[in-house]
Design goal:
Elements lengths: L1 E9 L4 H16 L3 E7 L16 E7 L2 H8 L2 H4 L2 H7 E9 L3
Antiparallel strand pairs: 1-3, 1-4, 2-3
């Protein structure tokens, strides 16, 4: 198993476009032996300490293998909507990990 954590930063005013992309991308995870484990939209009250910009959303996704994750990224249906991602996401931090 591999775990992908993503901190997602949205361009101001592009939240609806981001949600359109997520409606395509999130269901595609299942096609590639993956599962969205956690999707969080943090607010100021939920943050105890920070030394970086607060992300719009945090995703934790699990894939059976690295190959499954790579195949997800190459999904043809998802790729048709990457323009929505590019239009709405200012930046993202992707962290790969394994369960200890």
């Amino acid at each position: 198993m591999i775990f992908i954590t993503q901190l997602i930063y949205i361009k101001e005013g592009q939240e609806a476009i981001f949600h359109q992309f997520e409606e395509i991308a999130i269901p595609a995870i299942l096609k590639y032996n993956g599962q969205l484990l956690l999707r969080v939209r943090p607010d100021e009250k939920s943050i105890i300490e920070k030394n970086m910009e607060q992300p719009y959303e945090i995703h934790l996704v699990e894939f059976a293998t690295e190959e499954d994750f790579e195949n997800f990224k190459l999904d043809e249906e998802r790729k048709k909507f990457l323009h929505l991602k590019e239009q709405s996401i200012k930046s993202a931090i992707l962290i790969k990990g394994a369960k200890l």
